[in-house]
Design goal:
155 residues, mainly alpha, 6 helices, elongated
C-alpha cells in the first residue's frame, strides 16, 4: 500500500461521504434520522420499541454495519494509514473518529434504553445526539478534505 493509494481512497471516500447518492446516507442521513426520530412520538408503544431496537442493531458497534461500527473501522484505517503516509494529521483524524465512535455508542445505548423503557422523553435527547454527531462528522470530513488537497498540515 502506498501513500498515493491511501490518498486516492480518502478522496473517493470523501466524495461519497460528503456527496452521498441518496439522502439516507452519511451526514444528510444522520440529519434526516435526527428529524425522523422525533416523529416516533406518534408511534404506539410496540412500534416505538420496535423502531428503537431495529435502529440499535443497525448502529451498535458490536454488530451494526453503520454508526459506531463503521466509524471504529475508519478510525483504525486512519491510524494504520498514518505511518504509511508519514502523517500526523491522519493519526489525529483517526483519534477524532474514535471520539465520534463514542458518540455513536452513546446513541445506541440511548436507543437500547428507549427500547427497554419506552420513555418518549428520550426522543429529543437522541435527536440532539444525532445532530451533535452530524456536526462532528462534518467537521472531521472537512479537515480530511483539506488534508487530501494539501491544505491541512496540522490538526
Amino acid at each position: 500500500v502506498s501513500p498515493d493509494m491511501i490518498h486516492k481512497a480518502l478522496n473517493k471516500n470523501l466524495d461519497e461521504l460528503l456527496n452521498p447518492p441518496i439522502k439516507n446516507l452519511s451526514i444528510s442521513g444522520i440529519d434526516k434520522f435526527a428529524k425522523a426520530i422525533l416523529t416516533w412520538n406518534n408511534f404506539g408503544d410496540a412500534k416505538l420499541r420496535g423502531s428503537a431496537i431495529n435502529s440499535f442493531f443497525m448502529i451498535d458497534e458490536r454488530g451494526g454495519t453503520g454508526g459506531a461500527a463503521f466509524r471504529c473501522m475508519y478510525a483504525d484505517f486512519l491510524h494504520e494509514a498514518s505511518p504509511i503516509c508519514d502523517s500526523y494529521v491522519l493519526e489525529q483524524l483517526g483519534l477524532e473518529y474514535q471520539a465520534i465512535t463514542k458518540h455513536w455508542n452513546q446513541l445506541s445505548n440511548g436507543l437500547w434504553q428507549l427500547y427497554e423503557t419506552g420513555d418518549r422523553a428520550l426522543l429529543r435527547q437522541l435527536s440532539d445526539k444525532l445532530k451533535e454527531i452530524a456536526a462532528g462528522e462534518y467537521d472531521v470530513l472537512q479537515k480530511m478534505k483539506r488534508f487530501v488537497y494539501g491544505l491541512l498540515i496540522t490538526v
